[in-house]
Structure to design on (728 residues):
């Protein structure tokens, strides 16, 4: 994942989960973020799709197990679209 | 110009607004924090921003002034991700929105059970967001398998269910009900064949929607939301996300959830009273392309062709607002003459002077002008909306008058019209024909008052008005109106003598009585017959006495009264009388007429308990019709026998 994508994903996650951005790392996951339940997972998916203009397939969504994985997925989808 | 390097503007990027907002909240500066939150939302209305905004609003909501509104959403699909967007959008309109979401597809039970969580929530309004696949499942899924009769029955069942639900809801609650009407499939099951029949899939769904509208109209406070039109507006292919529908029961794509929220806001804003009553518009590069003061009449762009068409489309949108009873006003930094020339005479303009209720065309700052417009139109500052292409002016108004709804015009003029049409503050749920007419009258009246303030002298204003007056002896056609004016006019009425039609007719037959009416037009329109003067000759005293002199309050103070009085004086002098006399009989209401005779060179003759008698020496009088009024006089007929005063 690129650094700038990670930062943008981190900022989105900070808004969605209500956690300060500096407390979020690539390893942050539903285990470490209290608010990361299934409804917030959907909100995260929608916010990512909206922000980066990508569409996430159900298989992609399953892979979003931590913030680093989300950023990596965004990079992959964006480079595929280019 | 100021040097931007020496005084750098604070970085107001959305990312930097967040810490600034949290700092203000921590300091207890809640109102500035709320303003920045609204700004953040305006600049970046995304799902993640909505989460940030609503979490901060939750901490502020009881400590800053917001209108409370409770909305329940009954639904057949996932609406949860829309809720933060909706609440953030409501917050930006000054509304603290509390949202209750019903369980999946339990809307019928929720409505029928008067103990349900729906009614316990005590909502102000309820949205029934049910899609076609749930409301008319056979029509949506199995249409090709249905016989024509079965299809018709399916439509009837759907309608029956709506009718029962809406009826039961009204029995249990006085809340407003907003029912989504049904969406058509983007490709009907039989393809193009479907459109060849009234009873096709789309035909029957359309039938349900029409009947649903009838059902809604039968109840007070029940409205339909045209969901199919909403989808079509944004494009069915973009709106839908089949993956989210199948995995999360969310049919709407991520990028369009905000549009669903904004469509609901079109109802919530008028329901919570956060509407704009007046739209104040700029002229240059807003109502037309170019700068009238520099480009001139032939240089500005406004017309049916590109690039003027974009501005005409905006003007059409403004006309539509005006028909809904929203007043339009002008606030422009311009020379008045240049601006009026374009408004009145440019062939491409759809909006004319008569469409504006107030104007400030001057070089004063706009927030001051907006304050004056609100005062002149007798509305609060928060009832104003402001439309200006110049971001600097918008920012100035936002800062000085945060209550004003400032519309963010997009860069491209082709998008101006839809920016206005998309504003929830101009939505109305009901409209009487009376509203529309009142607006016209009000607009014309206020327009004159507004125009007056832009002139250096009264005389300039009178000349600008281009008044024309027709002065005529009373006739069969005007008799009723003349009598009515004597009965109704209270303010500018020197003697307040009331006459019936037969009495006026009787007087008109007498050769020594003279009854005149005056009709007035000006550049803003025709006022009709607005003044009456009745005089009678007194040969013994060698004078003519004014019995009645009155003017409708619509035209007081614009020298029409001088024109009418001058005519009485001149015609009395022509008949050989030396004096024109008249009583002022004071009443509780006719103070505006008290100084009238004195101001026109009359002298006080006599005062008694009922009033004062004034006299004008016709030999020395210089009383004339003002030269800015174009007066057309119809002489009295030589023989009164021909006066058709029946």
């Amino acid at each position: 994942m690129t650094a700038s994508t990670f930062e943008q994903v981190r900022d989105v996650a900070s808004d969605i989960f209500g956690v300060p951005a500096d407390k979020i790392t690539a390893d942050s996951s539903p285990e470490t973020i209290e608010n990361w339940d299934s409804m917030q997972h959907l909100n995260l998916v929608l916010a990512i799709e909206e922000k980066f203009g990508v569409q996430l397939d159900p298989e992609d969504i399953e892979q979003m197990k931590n913030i680093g994985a989300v950023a990596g997925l965004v990079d992959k989808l964006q480079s595929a679209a280019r | 110009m100021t040097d931007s390097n020496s005084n750098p503007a604070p970085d107001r990027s959305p990312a930097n607004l967040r810490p600034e907002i949290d700092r203000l909240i921590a300091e207890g500066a809640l109102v500035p924090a709320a303003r920045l939150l609204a700004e953040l939302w305006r600049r970046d209305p995304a799902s993640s921003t909505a989460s940030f905004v609503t979490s901060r609003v939750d901490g502020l909501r009881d400590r800053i002034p917001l209108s409370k509104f409770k909305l329940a959403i009954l639904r057949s699909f996932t609406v949860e991700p829309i809720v933060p967007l909706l609440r953030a959008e409501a917050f930006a309109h000054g509304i603290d929105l509390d949202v209750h979401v019903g369980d999946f597809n339990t809307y019928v039970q929720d409505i029928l059970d008067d103990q349900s969580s729906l009614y316990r929530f005590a909502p102000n309004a309820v949205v029934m967001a049910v899609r076609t696949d749930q409301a008319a499942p056979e029509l949506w899924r199995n249409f090709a398998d249905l016989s024509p009769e079965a299809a018709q029955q399916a439509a009837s069942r759907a309608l029956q269910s709506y009718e029962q639900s809406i009826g039961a809801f009204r029995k249990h609650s006085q809340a407003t009900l907003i029912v989504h009407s049904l969406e058509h499939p983007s490709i009907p099951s039989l393809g193009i064949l479907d459109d060849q029949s009234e009873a096709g899939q789309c035909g029957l769904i359309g039938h349900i929607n029409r009947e649903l509208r009838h059902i809604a109209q039968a109840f007070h406070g029940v409205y339909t939301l045209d969901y199919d039109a909403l989808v079509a507006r944004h494009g069915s292919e973009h709106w839908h996300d089949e993956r989210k529908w199948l995995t999360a029961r969310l049919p709407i794509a991520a990028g369009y959830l905000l549009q669903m929220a904004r469509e609901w806001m079109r109802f919530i804003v008028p329901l919570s009273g956060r509407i704009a009553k007046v739209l104040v518009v700029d002229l240059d590069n807003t109502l037309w392309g170019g700068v009238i003061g520099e480009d001139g009449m032939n240089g500005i762009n406004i017309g049916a062709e590109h690039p003027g068409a974009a501005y005409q489309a905006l003007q059409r949108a403004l006309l539509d607002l005006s028909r809904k009873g929203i007043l339009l006003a002008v606030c422009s930094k311009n020379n008045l003459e240049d601006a009026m020339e374009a408004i009145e005479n440019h062939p491409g303009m759809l909006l004319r002077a008569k469409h504006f209720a107030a104007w400030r065309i001057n070089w004063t700052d706009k927030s001051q002008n907006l304050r004056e417009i609100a005062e002149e139109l007798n509305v609060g500052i928060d009832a104003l909306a402001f439309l200006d292409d110049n971001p600097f002016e918008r920012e100035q108004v936002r800062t000085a008058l945060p209550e004003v709804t400032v519309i963010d015009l997009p860069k491209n003029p082709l998008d101006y019209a839809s920016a206005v049409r998309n504003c929830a503050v101009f939505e109305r749920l009901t409209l009487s024909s009376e509203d529309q007419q009142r607006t016209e009258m009000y607009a014309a009246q206020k327009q004159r008052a507004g125009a007056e303030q832009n002139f250096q002298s009264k005389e300039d204003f009178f000349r600008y008005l281009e008044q024309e007056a027709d002065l005529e002896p009373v006739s069969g056609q005007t008799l009723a109106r003349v009598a009515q004016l004597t009965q109704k006019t209270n303010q500018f009425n020197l003697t307040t003598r009331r006459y019936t039609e037969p009495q006026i007719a009787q007087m008109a037959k007498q050769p020594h009585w003279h009854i005149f009416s005056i009709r007035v037009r000006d550049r803003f329109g025709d006022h009709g017959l607005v003044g009456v003067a009745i005089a009678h000759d007194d040969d013994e005293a060698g004078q003519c006495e004014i019995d009645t002199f009155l003017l409708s309050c619509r035209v007081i103070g614009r020298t029409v009264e001088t024109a009418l009085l001058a005519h009485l004086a001149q015609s009395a002098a022509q008949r050989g009388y030396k004096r024109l006399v008249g009583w002022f009989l004071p009443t509780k209401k006719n103070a505006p007429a008290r100084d009238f005779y004195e101001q026109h060179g009359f002298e006080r003759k006599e005062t008694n308990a009922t009033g004062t008698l004034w006299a004008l020496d016709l030999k020395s009088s210089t009383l004339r019709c003002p030269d800015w009024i174009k007066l057309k006089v119809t002489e009295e007929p030589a023989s009164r026998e021909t006066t058709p005063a029946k």
